[in-house]
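Can you give me the bound-state structure? Components:
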Amino acid sequence: MYISVLGYAILSLLARASLSGYDVAREMKRPHAFFYGQAQTSQIYPELARLQEAGLISSTVIEQQGRPDRRVYALTPTGLRRLRRWLVEPTPIAEARSELLIKAHSLWLADAAEALVQFAEHERYHSRQLDVYETQMAEMEQHFGPELALMDSPRFGDYLTLTRGVGYEREYVGWLRWVIAILEQRARRDG
Amino acid sequence: MYISVLGYAILSLLARASLSGYDVAREMKRPHAFFYGQAQTSQIYPELARLQEAGLISSTVIEQQGRPDRRVYALTPTGLRRLRRWLVEPTPIAEARSELLIKAHSLWLADAAEALVQFAEHERYHSRQLDVYETQMAEMEQHFGPELALMDSPRFGDYLTLTRGVGYEREYVGWLRWVIAILEQRARRDG
DNA sequence: TCGCTCATGTAACATGTTACATGATTGG
DNA sequence: CCAATCATGTAACATGTTACATGAGCGA
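Here's the bound-state model for the whole set.
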């Protein structure tokens, strides 16, 4: 049985902790999980059903009072083996489409002052993301120190991806500010 | 009539030059157009038909000997207006899913030496991309110099996106090498 | 009272990928 | 001789998004 990337993403979360479908969706929305994309529950619930049918995860219903029952999923030994195999398989290289970059590429056609607005908006968003990542990074380094690179716990994964998050956002915010400065210069010129 | 991001991407290419469906696909595959994603002709041809039906582009058939005729599309005045409007509209912020980052997040479960291979592969690919971008950047700066930031030609768009390409790949390659060094260290330890 | 969180799902739609059909020319 | 390039498309499938259904509790 074929497993989609979303399927493996779910398995990788369940390797850290057992979760309900609702939890999986919430985990993927957390800022430090930026690389998961934000899958909707309408995609997650059917995917969980498929993974269970394939025997990679199991579920138990936990009854609750006042709120709906939770169906909590856990990774099976088969699921863990399957995940481990995927981890060392070659990963396809895919360059994603970026709507803002397509616009940047056409900025010679636009009014600088008007175009500037959305770049400023993205700058604000990514500055805040950078801030969040840097804070979490500092906390993690304080707790674990240079051991992080040698750990065999989920912290090691967090360390690798958070470092990427900080680097990515720092570089992106730098570029956004550079574009904004150029657009301001052009706006002044075009008056 | 609603236009998809792919539709606008096509319009933005046709604002620079008239192209056939085949040309559009080829343009989107060129390395300096990394942010367009790589749309397939099976998506491009129907999209071109829709854009023409909406009156945003027009087409003329050019007969050729020895090879199939070309249908060349050009942006109409309506299409240009529509594109210009889109350029200054707010752009949704979307964090894309990254398969390699999901794997990095789970690397505490994997054998370091085995996992290393694909990171090395990605490092090779992105090093080459960086090289291509830097070469093109150097050429562009030699031809146009600091005027680039003030130009009202497609060169301005190229300048903005190429700068992003260089920054992105430089930071990504740096991170990949850092991960590889850590995995090598762990591989030696685990022996 | 209004909207948010918790909780699980279905239906319809939009977008993107893979495979196929057709066929001449060109380069290794 | 084989594969790639040029050139336009269709069909089937996979993936992702938006909207809806249901309903209790909780805080402003």
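A couple of observations. The first helix of chain B runs from residue 5 to 14. Residues 20-22, 41-42, 45-46, 64, 66-71 of chain B lie near DNA strand D (CB under 10 Å from a C1').
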